[in-house]
Amino acid sequence: MTDIFKPSVTVAAIIERDGRFLLIEEETSEGVKLNQPAGHLDPYESLEQAVVREALEETAHEFIPTALVGMYMSRYHSKSRGTEVTYLRFTFCGHAGRELDQPLDEGILRTMWMTRDEIAASASRHRSPIVLQCVDDYLAGHRTPLHLLYTHPSVFEGGI
């Protein structure tokens, strides 16, 4: 039997204010890149908890998710590691809450508020090929209610 395919599950936050989107600039193995506040789903948390945590860690802003913009799959080839990874990304939209006085996550250089056109013009610096796609889907009004996502209590307990 062959290995079971296991994509990496990630979450991302689309945070828009006055026509600008909150992005992060981060140090990666491929150099400095731009991304939405995003990261991996951790054990024992729901997708919504993950996106709230990641947004806070990477931007020092509280994040209140209001809808799911979309689910995206992409493949990434790391030149520095010589490996391929498939990502399954759940992108949420919502509101930025309070900005807290805390350091940004390791590797995050700064936060930036950018227009859609500025994001498009910086495509060569995007961490993922779907950064702009997520913004465009948000601007097109793509929204799915959060109640579509269900997390069984066994996730929080660490097993059934």
Automatic annotation (TrEMBL):
Organism encoding this protein: Massilia hydrophila
Cofactor annotation: Mg(2+)
InterPro entries per UniProt: NUDIX_hydrolase-like_dom_sf (IPR015797), NUDIX_hydrolase_dom (IPR000086), NudJ (IPR033713)
EC class: hydrolase
One Pfam family recorded for the sequence: NUDIX
Name the UniProt record assigns to this protein: Phosphatase NudJ
Coiled coil spans: none
Assembly behavior: Monomer.
Documented EC number(s): 3.6.1.-
Domain Nudix hydrolase: 6-136
Record keywords: Hydrolase, Magnesium
GO molecular function list: hydrolase activity
Gene symbol of the encoding locus: nudJ
Domain of life: Bacteria
Family, similarity comment: Belongs to the Nudix hydrolase family. NudJ subfamily.
SUPFAM superfamilies per record: Nudix
